[in-house]
Amino acid sequence: MYLADFDIELFLRDYWQQRPLLIRNPWAEWRNPLEPDELAGLACEDAVESRLITTDGDVLKMESGPLPEARFGELGNSPWTLVVQAVDHHAPAVAELVEPFRFIPNWRIDDVMVSYATDGGGVGPHFDQYDVFLIQGLGKRRWRVGPRCNSATPLLPHEDLRLIADFEATGEWILEPGDMLYVPPCFAHDGVAVGDDCMTYSIGFRAPSRAELIESWCEHQADAAPEEDRYADPALPVQDNPGEITAPALNRLHAMVMEALSDREAFARWFGLHNSLPKYADADWRPEDPIDQKEVQSLLAQGIPLKRNPASRFSFIRQGVDILLFVDGHCFECAEETAGLAEQLGAAHLLKVDPALCASHDATALIKTLIDQGSLAFEEED
């Protein structure tokens, strides 16, 4: 599937991170990529993050998965919603939904959350800290959008859900299959199923907070600092009052911290590693047996395409003519023909590389490593 009627440049200029936008079925041909029973099956698996939201009068209740299969038969006629996270990691057809949105850099893309709701089902009025495209897959959903919120926005008391206390809609639409609603960060929104068999695909984007960056970068630099790297004050003058922390001492202390944190090259390498860490660290996508490098050479020579694991995160940073490739928390220094390969890996989910690359030891070694760590595979390996 691809977006046939969507002005990307106009969207980025006038809407991205600025205001919501309703987009009526922009697809060349919309096809719902996942059946409701398949979604329910994923919600029963231990390795999949899922939630079930039910109603008790006017109160929403949440249960965390994995859910027993029998639970769905107990739900009755009251409205309910099933939400499953990172479905693109498990369903190739859902992973394909992400491809048309690659006009946003890979490092900003998170995953595809899928929800199924019966008539009247929803998760309540809320706001997210990230951009999201809400794609209607099956059935209909009424979306209401409100003003921009922040940490001071009053919330209802609830153990599991962050529900806005006084939600006032400024816009309202009913979405049908193929329709999309873009919601920027912090805008209030509320979706309610209109009829049964309502499925919505939420393509979310990552936005690290300043606090997260500061905490993680400082922790990284602190761990790397040698024990003997300490404050020093040679030629210390006698001061009038020993209780004073003097300005020269504060200047030296501040300089110690800022010097460690202002290394941009070190920050770039750290951020590439930090940002490419898998979302679900317990997931192991490695093949049962390591691939032989000669087999890599043979398959490349035959023109067999390579495909990225949908759960893997690929990005790169240029360093002159060389490239630092970051994949699933690992950094690979790439030069010459391997740098070109790294760019290809960052650009496309499925790629057919030049068969001549089979003669490059460094390139085939990189491919072997990525296959062995479960980030990459040859297309024939299904």
TrEMBL record:
Alphabetized GO MF terms: 2-oxoglutarate-dependent dioxygenase activity; metal ion binding
All copies of domain JmjC, residue ranges: 93-222
Keywords of the record: Dioxygenase, Iron, Metal-binding, Oxidoreductase
Stored Pfam families: JmjC_2, WHD_ROXA
Cofactor(s) needed: Fe(2+)
InterPro entries: JmjC_dom, NO66-like, ROXA-like_wH
Keyword hit for Metal-binding: yes
Keyword flag Transmembrane: no
SUPFAM superfamilies: Clavaminate synthase-like (SSF51197)
The name this protein goes by in its record: Cupin 4 family protein
